[in-house]
């Protein structure tokens, strides 16, 4: 993949900082991956970078969550480790025809 480690760290840092103060949906993660790989890159190339970013976000304490309706808590964290998380997200990405539907997979926040 043709991007610098510095640019990757910049994009990752933005995502981690955002998720520490608010819930982060899938779109900024995919957007960061597209910035890194370029608009002409294949979907598979972008998918790999999305999963790398999510894995590194997990290492930074960011977890996938499911939003829940009131009156309960606003979200529930996934009870998965890093590898389980990445496998589940990859599977759910594969099950969707359009990346716009990735928002239905999960959100992310610092837990």
Description:
- There is one protein chain.
- The chain is mostly helical.
- The chain is built from 4 helices and 3 strands, in the order αααββαβ.
- It has helices at 5-21, 26-37, 43-59, 82-94; strands at 62-67, 75-77, 107-110.
- The chain has a 3-stranded antiparallel β-sheet with strand order 2-1-3.
- Strand 1 (62-67) and strand 2 (75-77) form a beta hairpin.
The rounded Rg comes to 14 Å
Tell me how many strands there are. 3
As a percent range, the share of helical residues equals 40-55%
Beta-strand residue fraction: 5-15%
Shape type? globular
| SSE ordering | HHHEEHE
Helix-strand makeup class: mainly alpha
Task: Please tag this protein with its features.
111 residues; mainly alpha; NMB0513-like; 3 strands
Short description, anyone?
By secondary structure, this protein is mainly alpha-helical. Helix content is 53%, strand content 12%. The chain has a three-stranded antiparallel beta sheet.
Secondary structure: elements and pairs:
Blueprint: H1 5-21, H2 26-37, H3 43-59, E1 62-67, E2 75-77, H4 82-94, E3 107-110
Antiparallel strand pairs: 1-2, 1-3
Helix pairs in contact: 1-2, 2-3, 3-4
């Amino acid at each position: 993949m043709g991007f610098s480690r510095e640019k990757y760290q910049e994009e990752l840092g933005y995502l981690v900082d955002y998720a520490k103060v608010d819930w982060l949906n899938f779109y900024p993660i995919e957007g960061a991956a597209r910035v890194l790989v370029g608009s002409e890159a294949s979907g598979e190339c972008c998918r790999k970078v999305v999963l790398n970013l999510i894995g590194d976000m997990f290492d930074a304490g960011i977890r996938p969550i499911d939003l829940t309706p009131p009156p309960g808590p606003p979200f529930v964290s996934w009870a998965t480790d890093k590898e389980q998380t990445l496998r589940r997200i990859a599977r759910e990405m594969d099950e969707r025809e359009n990346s716009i539907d990735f928002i239905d997979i999960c959100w992310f926040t610092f837990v």
